[in-house]
Target: Immunoglobulin superfamily containing leucine-rich repeat protein 2
Amino acid sequence: MIRLYIIWLGLALNVSCKELTDLEVLASAPTRCTYEHAYDMLGAHCGGLRLTKIPSLRGGIEILDFSDNKLQELHADTLSSYSSIKFLYLAENQIYMIDKNAFASLSYLETLDLSKNVILALPDSIFQLPSLRKLYLNGNPLLHMSLKDLTITKPIQAPLELLDLSDCKINKLPDWGILPNLVLYNISHNPLTTLEPQHFSTMCKLAKVDLTESIDNLKLCELKATVIWFQEKNVYFHLSDYNRLNTREFDNCPKPEISATLNASYHLCESVYTQVQNTKTSRRTWLTIGGGLAGFLVGFVLLLYIMHRHNVAQTKRTAKEKTAAAAGVKNASTVLLNDVS
Model:
């Protein structure tokens, strides 16, 4: 009963006012999923249909928009028939339960939008998806209850470039380990009680952090080390108001030293990034070489086949010529015998 109450409380926190009435929405909205192509990919649009489950869809879809529905649970077989999906939008549903194998078949998944749901627990398997670059978890008001105890297999296998945790009521950020590809990190609108540079030292390609309305409860001097880290690493941090950082109080805060541990974590992240890039380059090189070699072998086999056909044809022609010649000699002999007789 308490669990159900929490879920419905989360839904209440997550519902926003809409201009259209329910009757107007029903009158104007489509009644079933539609299909269209975008960027040479087949997409299925099922948004706003008030569906409680994903219906049977065409095979081969790469984009699935199932936002603004009433889906509550993601099981291992919910998406198992759509292994080609690259972009999956499940925002504004009522999802509270995600099975650990819910996305196991989606090895090509690049973007996953789970924003504005009531997720109670986040499975570690999401962070091990081999192609996942963008993950939206914003607007899950109950996620903070389990996020602090989330056990993540490290290093994270997903090549995340964007991670959005805004408006999730988080007071302490989880330890993600090394995120060598992360560029954009949105942790805005969270009541953070701490913001340490150690959290960002394993994000060596980080370019922007959105901290809007997340550090208002922190003392100025507690921010000094992180601000210095951002400045030294050229990380742009977004705030709704920078005035607190432009005060004499902030200037008078003791300037902390950047520890060797922070720099070691940063350099380790750079090494992992370089290794990953080298692996990709090597893979592309081998694919190119393999493609060239395969092309050469195909050409060589084709040449052998042509030569074989040519030899067979030549042998047949020679045999025909010999037969014709023999027939000619026989005919000539017959004529000569006739003439003698």
Observations:
- The helical segments are 2-14, 22-28, 144-147, 220-232, 248-251, 260-340.
- DSSP finds six helices and twelve strands in the chain.
- Residues 56 and 160 are 30 Å apart (CA to CA).
- The domain at 34-275 is CATH 3.80.10.10 (Leucine-rich repeat, LRR (right-handed beta-alpha superhelix)).
